[in-house]
TrEMBL record:
Residues 1-101 form the NAD-dependent epimerase/dehydratase domain. Keywords: NADP, Oxidoreductase. InterPro entries: Epimerase_deHydtase, NAD(P)-bd_dom_sf, NAD(P)_dehydrat-like. Pfam families: Epimerase. This is NAD-dependent epimerase/dehydratase domain-containing protein. It comes from the Eukaryota. One of its GO terms (molecular function) is oxidoreductase activity, acting on the CH-OH group of donors, NAD or NADP as acceptor. The keyword Oxidoreductase applies. Gene3D superfamilies: NAD(P)-binding Rossmann-like Domain. It comes from Opuntia streptacantha.
């Protein structure tokens, strides 16, 4: 992510960077989501909380930590370098598989379709 942002900084024709992150980067905060809460570029999952959540599988826990730290670094870099960046935090991205093996996201969808 930082390599892409660094390249964008050197290219004056880039006007905005759209970072596709993950809901994992913003959902594990320990804070209440009330109607008056605004989730913006300062709202991140708590990486220490992610490490302690026992309902997450080992891989999900580290996925949340990595996505949180990566997005925090991207926002910091973009602000320090004057890059206009927005981040999208989708809960699920579904589309044609690029790899021959079933990944976690598609496995969830397949279970729903099969009723298992």
């Amino acid at each position: 992510t930082l390599n892409v942002l660094s390249s964008c900084r050197k290219c004056p024709s880039v006007k905005r960077v759209v970072l596709t992150s993950s809901i994992a980067a913003v959902m594990y905060t320990g804070r209440s989501l009330t109607p008056d809460v605004v989730i913006d570029e300062n709202w991140f999952s708590d990486s220490e909380l992610c490490k302690k959540l026992d309902f997450l599988s080992w891989s999900s826990m580290w996925y949340g930590v990595s996505k949180t730290l990566a997005e925090e670094a991207a926002w910091r870099f973009s602000k320090e370098n004057g890059i206009d960046m927005v981040a999208l935090n989708p809960g699920r991205v579904i589309g044609p598989m690029l790899q021959p093996m079933l990944n976690a996201s598609v496995a969830v969808l397949l279970k729903l379709i099969n009723g298992t």
